[in-house]
């Protein structure tokens, strides 16, 4: 577009994932194949870096280093939690104009897609020829129009492996184990906890999702039943569980303590929910060994737990974004669509079909009792987790006859 | 010993590790090489299973399945938290006599080694020819006489990878991150957090160990200083941090909230310490983005994060225990001793040299200011973590000139 050749600007927004740099590198390397592209700029810390004109020139990177960065988790350009409104997007647009950017590619979730949508509208209003593309990324898997989103499969793999280990630990030292998983509105990541199950008595035995109303009395009855049956119970809980009115369960339980138990302590993004649920189980069910973990940041940034399928697809959405942008497909959001078992293709969706919308788990993925997932969900998720998932083996049972107390 | 051939009894005690089944399988397979061994029994759930005569016959396992179980984390026989006193050990001894067990091999930490010591004394008193061997295992790395203990390297690898990821996440979305790591008395596992550092500004920037007194005001000053320097701060904290009187910091901070903040909520084995430290940082330093994680059970049972060095050594301590037992080396505790950089050999230590004693981090491993570890610790730990540790790469900095506000 500009006299010196096209300029592409790419940025990363929202929470980091294990594969978000694959998309970044997909953009940077694919752009090198187009003779008309003079520069690929990267904005540091997302839209914040655009406002601040904090750009780096990715065209000066070696392809070798880019490949190594692609395999490094978290956002190499830095990220931001800024959620631009129209005015903020106008500021973005001013900077893009000043630098004669012809293509704006933003890697992110819901909020990022909405930013791309507004910037696209501003450019249209100004009659400025800007191609605006949203590249999907979120461990929550909550973008509509996508079979799944890059970043989710690797986070799901972490959660599955974590619960596979927690289940083995719980079998060795029986008790109740509560693991709290990310996902305020969509339960996909919490549901992934069951993918490491193998034997019929393996946990997690109960799964609580934000798609269903959480009723404490019912929860306690379900834990009691599983504990009576197996002598132990492993539970996966979404951080987003809430009552019928939508009030977070952590707030309700804190009130149950009859004083402002947590004072200034915030009730999300910390260990409160796991601890409060463990207290309820201990005090109401009189079970002694009850332990809770909050997976926190480990599930999205752990270095060394990644799905090869996720890596490949995250790379491809970046590549496809450049192809769509430079071959005149118009503005839009790149989406993953499943075409086989297992194969995918990429589509370009209108920005307003994706922006600001939230996908939650389909009913067909949740068992009727609401505390488990269906075979359809297993079939949906398993291919995404990739190769080399750890497998658990048991000693077979060859009992030895008792000599001192044969009747026991 | 018995007419039908020797009988070995093996059991697993205390917290599971990623490689404790390697030791179990080392015992079971090595015993097959000795013609005089008729049976290898496994007690289910440690000493509890001995009292209950809850034995399985490992001689009926296929070597193929044993190899698969060896690669599965957590205790395949089950474990126990029972800490036997003399009377309990007398009960153990009665069962061993009844089943004509000639060799008792117990895989565990400090408490387990003490059990082996008492059972050994009971057998001597009774004039019963019983070989008693302790096989080391603990993620805390706190057994004296050992260069390190099986299970620690894999847990250390998890902690190093977790902090490597948390550091990248924190660099992308700057703020303060607190990760709380297991280890009540010994800080080895917390110190392992630094092994994923690569660039000079990488976190963890501060490490707080139970070997040093924790002073809140000093902690806050140190966090403030790092935050001012890097615009972010990653902190590794041992769950065992305490004040000069030995009082756990979680208890002190809970009191600071001016009401009995946590009610019945216990202050260890949950997310309280991380949450309370985060509250202090937010309220005292006025830093907005402060996040805490408690690694909890993930660090000892995560399925799919293991050191190959740890696997190999855990297998060998099991094999060596059988060799020591059957070749008449006497009772004792198998210990790992470093003989090269990197190579090890195995010794048999007297039981009372190990039992009931706790090793903590040597002063040479801790920096004089108490908030970091020395090169000597890096050199000590790195070879234990094994092959294929993830490496992190960065974009190199190629800034683009600002056009709208060149002066900024």
UniProtKB/TrEMBL annotation, chains A, B:
Major subcellular site: cytoplasm
- Protein name, per record: Pyrophosphate--fructose 6-phosphate 1-phosphotransferase
Q: Where is this site: Important for catalytic activity?
A: 137
In terms of superkingdom, the source organism counts as Bacteria
Name the Gene Ontology molecular function terms of this record. Answer: 6-phosphofructokinase activity
Start and end of every Phosphofructokinase domain?
Answer: 7-324
What InterPro entries does the record tag this protein with? ATP_PFK, PFKA, Phosphofructokinase_dom, PKF_sf, PPi-PFK
- What family is this protein classified in? Belongs to the phosphofructokinase type A (PFKA) family. PPi-dependent PFK group II subfamily. Clade 'B2' sub-subfamily.
Reactions that this protein is recorded to catalyse: beta-D-fructose 6-phosphate + diphosphate = beta-D-fructose 1,6-bisphosphate + phosphate + H(+)
Active site positions: 140
Q: Which residues bind diphosphate?
A: 15
Could you tell me the EC number(s) of this protein?
2.7.1.90
Please give the start and end residues of each transmembrane region. Answer: none
Query: What organism is the protein native to?
Result: Rhodoferax ferrireducens
Positions that bind substrate: 138-140, 182-184, 239, 297-300
Q: How does this polypeptide assemble, per the annotation?
A: Homodimer.
Pathway(s) this gene product operates in, as recorded in its UniProt entry: Carbohydrate degradation; glycolysis; D-glyceraldehyde 3-phosphate and glycerone phosphate from D-glucose: step 3/4
Subcellular localization, per the record? Cytoplasm
Report keywords, A-Z: Cytoplasm, Glycolysis, Kinase, Magnesium, Metal-binding, Transferase
> What job does this protein perform?
Catalyzes the phosphorylation of D-fructose 6-phosphate, the first committing step of glycolysis. Uses inorganic phosphate (PPi) as phosphoryl donor instead of ATP like common ATP-dependent phosphofructokinases (ATP-PFKs), which renders the reaction reversible, and can thus function both in glycolysis and gluconeogenesis. Consistently, PPi-PFK can replace the enzymes of both the forward (ATP-PFK) and reverse (fructose-bisphosphatase (FBPase)) reactions.
Coiled-coil-forming residues are none
């Amino acid at each position: 577009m500009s006299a010196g050749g096209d300029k592409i600007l790419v940025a990363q927004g929202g929470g980091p994932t294990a594969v978000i740099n694959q998309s970044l590198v997909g953009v940077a390397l694919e752009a090198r194949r187009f003779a008309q592209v003079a520069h690929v700029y990267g904005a540091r810390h997302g839209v914040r870096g655009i406002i601040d004109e904090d750009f780096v020139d990715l065209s000066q990177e070696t392809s070798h280093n880019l490949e190594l960065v692609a395999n490094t988790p978290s956002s190499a350009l830095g990220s931001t939690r800024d959620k631009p409104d129209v005015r903020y997007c106008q500021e973005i647009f001013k900077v893009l104009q000043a630098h004669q950017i012809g293509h704006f590619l933003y890697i992110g979730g819901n909020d990022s897609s909405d930013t791309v949508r507004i910037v696209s509208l501003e450019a249209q209003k100004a009659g400025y020829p800007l191609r605006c593309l949203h590249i999907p990324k979120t461990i929550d898997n909550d973008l509509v129009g996508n079979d799944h989103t890059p970043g989710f499969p690797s986070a799901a793999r972490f959660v599955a492996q974590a619960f596979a280990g927690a289940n083995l630990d719980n079998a060795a030292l029986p008790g109740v184990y509560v693991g709290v998983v990310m996902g305020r509105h969509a339960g996909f990541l919490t549901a992934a906890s069951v993918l490491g199950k193998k034997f019929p008595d393996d946990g997690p035995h109960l799964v609580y999702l934000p798609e269903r109303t959480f009723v404490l009395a019912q929860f306690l009855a379900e834990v009691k039943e599983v504990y009576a049956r197996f002598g132990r119970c492993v539970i996966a809980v979404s951080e987003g569980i809430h009552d019928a009115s939508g009030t977070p369960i952590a707030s309700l339980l804190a009130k149950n303590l009859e004083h402002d138990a947590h004072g200034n302590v915030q009730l999300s993004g910390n260990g409160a929910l796991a601890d409060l649920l463990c207290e309820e189980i201990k005090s109401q069910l009189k079970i002694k060994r009850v332990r809770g973990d909050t997976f926190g940041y480990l599930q999205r940034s752990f270095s060394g737990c990644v799905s090869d399928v996720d890596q490949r697809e995250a790379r491809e959405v970046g590549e496809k974004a450049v192809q769509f942008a430079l071959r005149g497909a118009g503005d839009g959001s790149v989406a993953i669509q499943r075409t086989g078992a297992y194969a995918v293709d990429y589509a370009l969706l209108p920005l307003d079909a994706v922006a600001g919308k939230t996908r939650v788990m389909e009913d067909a993925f949740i068992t009727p009792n609401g505390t488990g997932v269906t075979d359809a969900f297993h079939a949906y998720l398993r291919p995404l987790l990739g190769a080399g998932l750890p497998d658990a083996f048991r000693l077979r049972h060859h009992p030895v006859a008792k000599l001192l107390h044969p009747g026991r």
